[in-house]
Specification:
Blueprint: E1 2-8, H1 15-27, E2 32-37, H2 52-63, E3 69-72, H3 84-94, E4 99-105, H4 106-110, H5 118-124, E5 126-130, E6 145-147, H6 157-165, H7 176-186
Parallel strand pairs: 1-2, 1-4, 2-3, 4-5, 5-6
Length: 188
């Protein structure tokens, strides 16, 4: 199988995440997109991070019924913090017959040189990058890197957490099945 690895905190998941998964399935010819819920991203602070199991449960609910989209807790049993290179190495060991394509945002691509083993990742994996609003696509990209245009959804997880704290309605920005869960989890 050809599997897209879409890693992130998903703190919380929102409609933009779902649109990216759907688009990557088609654009990259993937069999599945795995929403790899990260217990601890080494480049992010964890002060606002909801419990990993709670975030996973919301992602599972959000992608239920979405053909080709899966929530996975694969990194929960790996050493922390979660470095992409280590995750990819474990995936190849556990799923030797599958091909993995890394899915990242343009903001992560801009900092990709800071990632552990970034050159190794580039030399061994295809990478699909979705540009962020207002970000330019570089004129030159390394072989194996594809920029994929995704539908613009004007939402971020940070924005949603702030909206919940201010008592604002997040339902237009999140899958309906998790709207109440998000409001309850991030209100306090």
């Amino acid at each position: 199988m050809k599997i897209g690895i879409f890693g992130g905190s998903f703190n919380p998941i929102h409609n933009g995440h779902i649109a990216i998964g759907r688009t990557m399935l088609r654009a990259m010819g993937l069999d599945e997109v795995w929403y790899m819920v990260s217990p601890h991203n080494p480049l992010k602070q964890s002060a606002d991070l909801l419990d990993e199991r709670e975030r996973l449960r919301m992602v599972e609910k959000a992608v239920a019924g979405e053909k080709g989209l899966r929530a996975v807790d694969y990194e929960f049993s790996l050493p922390r913090p979660s470095y992409t290179w280590n995750t990819l190495q474990h995936l190849h060991r556990d799923f030797p017959d599958d091909e993995f394509v890394l899915i990242i945002g343009g903001d992560n691509w801009a900092n990709f040189h800071r990632w552990a083993h970034s050159e190794d990742i580039l030399s061994t994996h295809r990478i699909a990058v979705f540009p962020r609003e207002g970000a330019d696509v570089p004129a030159e990209v390394p072989a194996g890197v594809t920029f994929v245009s995704v539908p613009t959804v004007d939402v971020t997880s940070t924005m949603l957490r702030g909206m919940v704290r201010r008592g604002e309605d997040v339902t237009p920005f999140v899958p309906p099945v998790v709207a109440h869960d998000i409001e309850r989890a991030y209100a306090g």
